[in-house]
Structures are given as structure tokens and as C-alpha cells.
Write the C-alpha cells for this entry.
Amino acid sequence: MNAPTDTQQLASDNYAGICAEAFAHLEAANAGHAIAYGDDVWTARAKAAIEDVFETACEVHFVFNGTAANSLALSAICQSYHSVICHELAHIETDECGGPEFFSNGSKLLLGGGANGKLTPAAVEAIFRKRSDIHYPKPQAVSLTQATEVGTVYTPDELAALQATARRLGLHLHMDGARLANALASLGARPKEITWQAGIDVLCFGGTKNGLAVGEAVVFFNTALARDFAYRCKQAGQLASKMRFVSAPWLGLLDNDTWQRNAAHANAMAQRLAKGLEPLPGVHRLFPVEANSVFVSLPEAVITRLHAAGWRFYTFIGAGGVRLMTSWNTREETVDAFIAATRQALGETTPAPAAVANSLDA
Amino acid sequence: MNAPTDTQQLASDNYAGICAEAFAHLEAANAGHAIAYGDDVWTARAKAAIEDVFETACEVHFVFNGTAANSLALSAICQSYHSVICHELAHIETDECGGPEFFSNGSKLLLGGGANGKLTPAAVEAIFRKRSDIHYPKPQAVSLTQATEVGTVYTPDELAALQATARRLGLHLHMDGARLANALASLGARPKEITWQAGIDVLCFGGTKNGLAVGEAVVFFNTALARDFAYRCKQAGQLASKMRFVSAPWLGLLDNDTWQRNAAHANAMAQRLAKGLEPLPGVHRLFPVEANSVFVSLPEAVITRLHAAGWRFYTFIGAGGVRLMTSWNTREETVDAFIAATRQALGETTPAPAAVANSLDA
Amino acid sequence: MNAPTDTQQLASDNYAGICAEAFAHLEAANAGHAIAYGDDVWTARAKAAIEDVFETACEVHFVFNGTAANSLALSAICQSYHSVICHELAHIETDECGGPEFFSNGSKLLLGGGANGKLTPAAVEAIFRKRSDIHYPKPQAVSLTQATEVGTVYTPDELAALQATARRLGLHLHMDGARLANALASLGARPKEITWQAGIDVLCFGGTKNGLAVGEAVVFFNTALARDFAYRCKQAGQLASKMRFVSAPWLGLLDNDTWQRNAAHANAMAQRLAKGLEPLPGVHRLFPVEANSVFVSLPEAVITRLHAAGWRFYTFIGAGGVRLMTSWNTREETVDAFIAATRQALGETTPAPAAVANSLDA
Amino acid sequence: MNAPTDTQQLASDNYAGICAEAFAHLEAANAGHAIAYGDDVWTARAKAAIEDVFETACEVHFVFNGTAANSLALSAICQSYHSVICHELAHIETDECGGPEFFSNGSKLLLGGGANGKLTPAAVEAIFRKRSDIHYPKPQAVSLTQATEVGTVYTPDELAALQATARRLGLHLHMDGARLANALASLGARPKEITWQAGIDVLCFGGTKNGLAVGEAVVFFNTALARDFAYRCKQAGQLASKMRFVSAPWLGLLDNDTWQRNAAHANAMAQRLAKGLEPLPGVHRLFPVEANSVFVSLPEAVITRLHAAGWRFYTFIGAGGVRLMTSWNTREETVDAFIAATRQALGETTPAPAAVANSLDA
């Protein structure tokens, strides 16, 4: 059976490293001394670059990772007795170990459904209407993940409908954009169209999964919500002393549209993977492939064989579900090797024990 | 249509006042000066009385209400990154406004199902098995409500099965006993049989709903969990300076089995209510009547007419569900008047708008 | 040596019980059923009575004790990265076991000095000016205790000066009024003059020490700060289900100026005590006696003899300091017996071991 | 007047960048894919290297910065109602914006004095003895900073005395070792001698100030305290998805004693600076120079002139105090240029406005 090409895997876009452009900026930023805690020129330039990307003035804070970005952003909106409406598959619910509840000192996540991992206006309204008394946390925000945890993408029309509902109900809008770049590449939209023009108050703009070593940007389009946010970051252990090493790579990503090319490449690899897997007998696609992940179901024995052959990927307990992710540097050979390995494994017949499932977030 | 008898309602056992025996002790405790913060003789006697009730040494702390009792007890078991497995209808989930998450700085409630509001060992195990990675809060406790929020009661056998599962999985057991007295009266069991002998580590023993003005007892059978609990209560604003006025009424309740008679009366009234309502056409019982509440569905028009006639009770949105609760001092006439009013309302035919639903906890 | 008269002590105003007028209302409120969670008529009347006392519209929430009242009020003003400027002897600093830090998820108390337990405008400004960077919690409020922990009282002029400083610096004003009644009786001022007219945004108005069993009122004069405060109370375990038993006694206290008479009596007893003790050789007054406490220093041997004779009171480690408190029902005979006992103890000469000191808050 | 050499400053060791050895490892780690969240080979090797450094088995967790490291370590020891005894100049008190209180949901820092920024056993015991009642947070840990915030170093004898006191009082020992390397270089001690052999339960081992881009290691010598610590890090937003980029540079630092050479160089530059400044008239040394900082007082006019000439450094309000810090890459020319600039400024006489003081932590 085909082993993974070199060390590449399809387990997570977190397995990929730092892209060349980001690395070059990291290196450049290492010349000489620089003022600490973000008062350096790299950080100023990176913030300006983000304003350019979104074609608007906004307040930008760089933090270390996605859990912190989402949790801090939500805690800027919610008091402890408030709640956040999100999809039951949202990363803040399934893979941040209660980070949002911790940072906000107790805010509750209210979970809604919706096909293909996407929250619907009807689900938001139903959750909002369910309770209106002081014995239950008061909804204060809707959190959307773009692209979603199952690799789908909210269309501008879907976002507009959600915005209308949120505004009518007096709810703020948060976007977990850990893979915003992939969503943009998928939609062919301008960044502003699916963020502040869609009513997003605060965006967690992901860099790590798209070619950085570390770091996400919390982008406040509604700057009133950013009041004293620098204090919040500092207290929560999210203010880098040598900030330039977090911010400069962002410049590398944003300059010359590197971030868009990275995302488009990851998406293209997912399409190639889907196209190769779907025709195979025994393979069933679970969600539309709109960003950089492919969800399929495979016979348990096939999963076992692929794991035995050295392929790493996440599975769903008992369901035969498999998540495959591509990244900014996934090679065509890696994709093709996985397809070939799957085809080969499907051709064998030995029964196998159930796979162990776990977090998708690795 | 029959109006409520005097001021009695069937909306909540919190509508009832202080029973005579508790009040007498409140009055007696008001003689002279007493040492503050619980170092008084009334408090010592009340703690001893609770040890007598449960026939074991245990550590007892009196706090002001049920939300505090449950939240503090769970925070003594869980760190912020831990989780508590409970039924989706548990009071800690539905009616404490995120208190458990607040007191523990973020612990998550993991919700399970189970017929008649009762968590099953299978549900506990499924939730426990679902995740075992650090990206999701680690289960640390199972919380059971006895009697449940829908007026049912865990049998000793059911508790034994849950204990076995919890012990096997390394989970602590918490019991929300806001209506433990009603459960005991229903089962005819000794208090120890369904608490520490059933593996309960910490019990929140309710007094308010059974005839006190204010106050619940947090009872640690597993005294190791009570380490520094007095500090926890103090910091959380749950240490009464004039503690005797919280503890002395407990003595009134516990002496001479008043608490058991109170609960038995409430249960009997629920039986009378159920017996009167169930034969009526259009009335459907939703849960077994095992404690002091009756859940039925009624036509929306009937609900509206009953509300218009001055009857207060809680409903479920859109479902026609109605919760009726009896208390230690519910009179037979009140029950009979409600039955009569329902019969009368069922006989009318005017269409009515949908009822507004809300918290059950009032 | 004279033993304490009956059971009366001078250790704490928390040793006294419930005054007759409050008790009568407690009893009256126990007639029939009442709507839970504060939607009852007693609570409405008590809130209106508080508005009458302060001669202004305001938002009132009843909570269980002073730690909760102060902590919740401050958490309505402060985020976790904010700070509160208070006197180093403030109750929130010395006797609430970190309650303010807990309820606000980390707000820091910044301690200032000032003679006689009173914070000065200069101390407030010095603390405010000391730091203005994001590496230290940002001041958001000044908390004043009226009467102070050492039995002194801020004059209207002192409050006006503090208000001017706070407003200039953009700080909110919180008043811990656990003994506001004693301060008012001392000053002969109208309640409004030393609260909202002095710029107080939120007052914790104490009832427990002045004749209630349990309960303080959080009074928002700046109602914008009270946004969603009912949720905050509920989540924090501070919403009484049978609220009438917390609120009705307040009516008993406020009607017919009972609260003012109670406080005036306590103050008068403190004056009698001070007048009796001060002339004794070996007794030194430590603070002006302006409310209901007397702080003196006594020889250690005298302290030991008084304790041995059954008198309870708090001492300061190694300093020979003694706190004596009078209450709404302290009898003249109790005061006179203590004076006599002290005189007797001063006449003896046996050396004695050092007294053990501890919290003043008992 | 001499301007700063190139871009080097003496404001903070956080102004320096990444040392060559760390950078080389960062680059090497960027080859190919790697398992996320710390299950990669770089992280395993870095953990082993730390065990080698301390010559013992221990549990190591890499987090993003010092505030997080200290706050998480202390929250693993303390519940919300506990307290931490530390020096009043400790970084956790003065420069983490309430991080320890936030992560622990309210633990209080109890501040002690001690010459040269060093806590004494007597100060620890006095704070511990001051209160022992439930109205005040219970001491649970002593936190020591090595090297201290004022550039001094605890000797092994001083640590042994503190250990004896802490053990006798039942207190855990935490060490903020943001500049542990500088302390070790100063003492010429083996790492184990001033950490676990000195009774330290948990060490926050700093890398950022000594040549890394980002990252501190939380090192549990008392592994019982590390229970579920991985969950704690994850929830608090301190688990890097691409962990190798945090851990690999640690290897670069630790291999071949780079970290020790870096620290020794910084210390040597501080000695050179002190030696150059101290003879100048008007310059007064404020603390012994034992690590990589020099604290002197200068006339306000001199401070103003140095700032005007482009030199950045921190000052103390009104006191003329100045903190100067050297780093792993401070050049001799930078030091000499500063000395020359100070000499020149001292020779001028124009009066100048007071300098603005602020956090030391930049």
C-alpha cells in the first residue's frame, strides 16, 4: 500500500509549516532591537495591511491562537450571564475545551443545528425565543464559522439573512474566521463583502492554518466593542512581548496576496482529493467540498488499513466518518497517494476493529 | 369559572411560605445575641440533626439557595476545564442562568437524555466515551436531580446502576436534592439509602421548597471534597453573618419528622390533582406523577382560559404542556378548584392565542 | 468580675437578632402564597420604600449579604482587567475573602491610606496616577465605606471632594453602606445628601447589621450600570426564590423610621461606652467614635481577663487594640457592665499571654 | 550627544530578537509536516532537554508568554479563595495586569517587603500569620522571582531559608524564572540547586528574554500539581497548534549551553554598564547589579536629555529612578555609547520637565 509521500499528511492544516513569504518576514524582523509589546513598526504595518484587506478602518489585535482569539472576542461582547448562539459543530463548542466559558467567566453556548454545519436564521431565532427569563443566560451574540468545521462556506446571501435576524433580535455577530481565506477563495468574494458588510462586529482572522507559525488577528469592525481590549489581551496572557515576531509574518502573508494563493491552493487540493475519492465504491461524501476539507465515510476496515499504512486523519466514533484536510502546501502527489491508498484498501477484505475517534482539532 | 382558592396557586412550591415548625424556630432563635457566621448553637444543632437524618458523619454547610448550593458543590469537584454530565432537563442546565459555569469559572455541562427526566447509565457512558482528548472538557462528575425536574423519582436500583457506572468511569456523584424530601416520601426509603449508600459524594439538600424561608444544606458525604469549603462559601457571598436565622429553621423542619410530613402532603396533593385531571377528555399526562408535580398537556384555549381566571402556572412553548406543582401547604380545596376550573374550561370552545412559555423555575 | 449581661456581647453588630418591626413583617408576609423570585407585592413595596428614603427613582435589587452586594455591584462596574481604589481597611479588602476578585473574575483592589479609615482625594489621585499602561489593571471605580470599618464617618464635604476627584478622573463611585444608617444618624443628614447627591453611582445599603435576619439592598442611582443586573444576581446565587421573606422585613425596617431609630440607638450606646472607657487609666481611644463602634487599646493582661470573664470582642495582633461594637438592641446595662469589668480588670496586675487576633468581621 | 548605536536600546531585554541558534532550529523545524499540538518530535526533544538541564524527571508544558506561564502555574496550586505570598515588586503583582487573579478566578496576591526586591522568610511568615480565618484568602503558595525584578539574585542560602519556612507553613513554592538563566550565570550554580533542590514545586522557565521569539516552559518538579494541566493550557488559549515552532527554538537555546552563554553575556554587559555609570557624579546605584539590569537614579534633566537623544528606558515617577537592561545581544558599543551620553548629559545644566513613568515590563 502507498505510504504517505514524505512526511505530508491529510490530517490537519495545522500539520503544515510556515510559508516562505511569512518566514522571510520573520527573518527580516529579527534585525536589530525593536520596541516591545506591539509598539514596533512591523506591528503597525501589519495592522495597516489588515485594514487594507478589509477596505475599512478597524481595530486589530494580534493574539497567539484561535481559542484565545475567539474566547477574547466573545468575552468582549458577553458578560458571564450572557450566551452565544452557535452551530453545534462550531469549533468554540467542540474543540476549545471550554475556552469561551473560561474567558467570559461562564457565558453559555446555545447550540443550534443546520445542514452542512451552517447555522440558519430560523435556528437562531428559535434559540433566542426559547427563553426570555432571568433563569437562563441571555443571548448576546451569534457566532458563525467561515469556512465551517465541515468545510462548507456561508454564501453572502446566507450571511445577509443571518445579519437581518441578528440585528432584529439585537444580537452581535462574531465570525470565527480561522479559515476565512479558504472561504474567500471559494466564494471569489472581496473580504469586506462577507465580513463588515455582512454585519460582522468582530472577526477572528486566522493566520496559523494558512501559513503562519502562530497568531490570529482579532479584528473589530465595531470598534466600540474593542474598549480596553488591549488590557483584556494582556491580562489573559495574550500580549506578546516580542510582538514583531507575531505581526511581521502577517505582513508576509498579506503582501502580494500570498494568503489568497495559499488558500486557493489548499482548496484546489481538496477538490482534487474529492474528485479522486468520490467515484470509488464504498466511499460516500458527507458534506459539500467548498473549502479545504473533505468528509467521507469509509468502511471501518479501510480506515484501519489506511492508519496501518501510516496515514493520519481523524474519524468519527462508530460512524465510519473521516475528515481529510488539505493545506497551503499539500502536494498533488500527497493527494494522489492517498487516493491510491484508499483504492487499494477498498480492494482488500479483512475485517478490522473499530477506529478510535477523537477531536477534529489536531 | 372557579378562581384560585384564596391566594393559593399551583405554579410552584416556591409560592408557599414558611411552615409553622420552621417559623417557631426562627422566632426562638431571635432571643438574645448569638455568635455570628455559624459558630452558634443553633447551627451546631442543625448540622447534628442532618447527620442524624442521614445516619452518618458528614460535613454540612448552609447556603442561601439552590443555585448557590449546586454551583458551589460542583465547583468543589470540578476545575474550569472539567465537565459535569447531567440530564438535559436538569435544573443546573435549565434554570440557574449559568451558575455552575460561573462558580467554577467555566466548567461545561454535558447533556444526556433519558426517559422521564432521568439520566441513564448508558447516557452517562456515551457522553463520557464521546471524547477523551484535551480539546474538550474532561468529565469529572455526574449530577442527578432527585426528585427530577419533571416530578419523577430515581429508584434505588436506578441509583445503584448509575453509581456503578460512575465509579467505573472515575466520576464523582452530585445530587441536586432540592426536592429530596419528596423523593424519599415517594420511595418510602431511608435517606441514607438513596444518598451516600448510593455513592453520592455531595448532596444539595433542599429546605426552601419544603417549608423554609431561605436556605439549602450542602452535605458532603465524601468529606475530602469539602476541603476549604468554608472559604469557598465565604468568598462566593454564601456565608450568612446571622447564620442562626438560616440554620434554626432547619431544626424546626427536621425535628419530629416535619420535613417528611410536609413532603408527603405535597406528594398526596399531586396524586389528588393527577387523579382529578387525567380522566378529563383533552388532558394527557406527560410524565409519571411520583413526587409533587403534575405535567399534563392541555388545549391552548384551555390554558388561556385558566390563566384568564387567575390561575398561575408554567407552560411549554407551542406544546400545550403545563406544569402544576403542589407544596407542603397546598389545600385539597385548591386542588379541587383547579380540577373544576379545568373541567369548565375544557367545556368551552373559544379559540385562544398561544400561551407564553418561560422558565419552570418560579 | 462582671459577666456579660444575659447573652449580650459587644463583639459585633452581627450578634444582634431581628428587630420587632422587621420580625412582624416577616410574620405578616407568611400569609398565603406569593409569586416567587421577587414579583410579589412585598418586594414591590420595599423597593418603593427605598426610593422614598432616597427621594429619587433608582433600581433596587435585594441580595443575601454584604459580600455579595459589594462584589456584585463592583462587578457591574468593572471588567476583570479593571481595578477598584479603596482604603486599605475597607471591608472588601479585609473581610470578604476575595469576593470582589471572584465575582469580577479578577478585578484588583488598589489600596490607599488615609487617617481614621477614610480614603482621601489625594490618595485616590496618587493611586490613579501611579500607572497608566496596559500592564496594570485600569482603575474604574472608587469604593467608600460609610460608616468606615473603624467607626468613623465621611462628612458631606469629604464626600464632595472625593466626588470631584472621581469625576475628574472618570471613576465611578461605589459606597459600601453596610452601616449607612449609623453614618446618617451620626451626621444628621438626609440619605440623598451623602449618596446620589454626593455622586454615588451604586450603594450597597445594609440591613442585616441594623435589625434584619438577612439581606442587603443594591441600589443603583446610576441605572445605566444596572443593565441586566437581575441576570447577574440570579447566576451568582443571589436571587431568593421566596423573595418576600427577604424584602418584607425591609419594609418593617423602613416604615416609621425604625431603621433610623435603630441606628441612633446603636450610636448612642457607642458614645456611652466611649465615655465610660476613655477616662480609665490604661485605656487609649484609637479612632474617633462617630458611629457604633469603639476602638481602644488595652493592656494585654486586661484583654485576657475580659475574655476569661466571658466577654467576646476582636483584637489586633500584638497591638493591644480592641474593637467594641454596639447594635440596635445593645442595652445600657451591657455597656455599663463592660465598663465596670474593664475597670475591674485594669485594677489587677497578673501578666497575661498575648491575645489571638483575627478578622474584625464576626 | 551620542545617539543609540544602530537600533540597540537598553530599555528591555524584550527589545532583543531571536538568537542564531534558536532561529536555526525554527528554520529546521519548518521542514515538512508535523503532528500538531505538541505530539511532534521537536517538542519531545525539547522536553527531554529541559529534564537534562535540571537533572531530574519533570513535567514540562510550553506556553506562549510569562504572564500565562505564571498565572497557569499558580492556578494549578490555588483555588479562587487562596492566596499567593510574593514580593511587592514581583512581576505577577506589578506587570501582569491581574493575570494571576484572572486565571485563578480571584486568588489574591499578598505582598511582602524585603531589601533588594527579595522576599524574606520573616516577611512570608508575618503575612501567613496575619490572618487565619475564613474571611480572608488562605495562603497556599510563595512565589519567588529569580532573578528579581530589580536585577538581584536569591542565593542558595536564601532559597533554603525560604524553603524551610514554606514547608513548615505548608506552602507550595513557585518560581518565576523569566530570567532564571541570568540568575544561574550570576551564581555559577547548577540549575537543580536553585530549583527543585531548593523545594521549588513549579518553575516558569523563561526563554523569550534570553533569545527566543515566544515561549516559556512551565516545569513541574512536583508532578502531582500538574494533574490535567494540559487541559488547563488548552482551555486558556495556551496550546500552540503548530507547537514545534514554540518548542524547537528551545532546543536551539538549550543545546550546547547557548542559553547560559546568552545569559552570561547579558550579565557581563550589565556589569560593564554599572562600572561605567557609577563613578559619574550625580549617578547613584539603587540596587546591587547581579543579573542583567542596572538601576540608578539620575537628575531629571539628565533623563530628559537622554530621552531626547533617542535613548529609551523606563523611569520611576518623581524619583529620578532609571532601569537599564542588557540582553543576550547587547553590544559593548551600545553600553559605552550610553555611558558617554550620560556623561555628556550630566555636564549640561538646562532644567527639564519630569519624566513620565510607567510599567517596567517593556
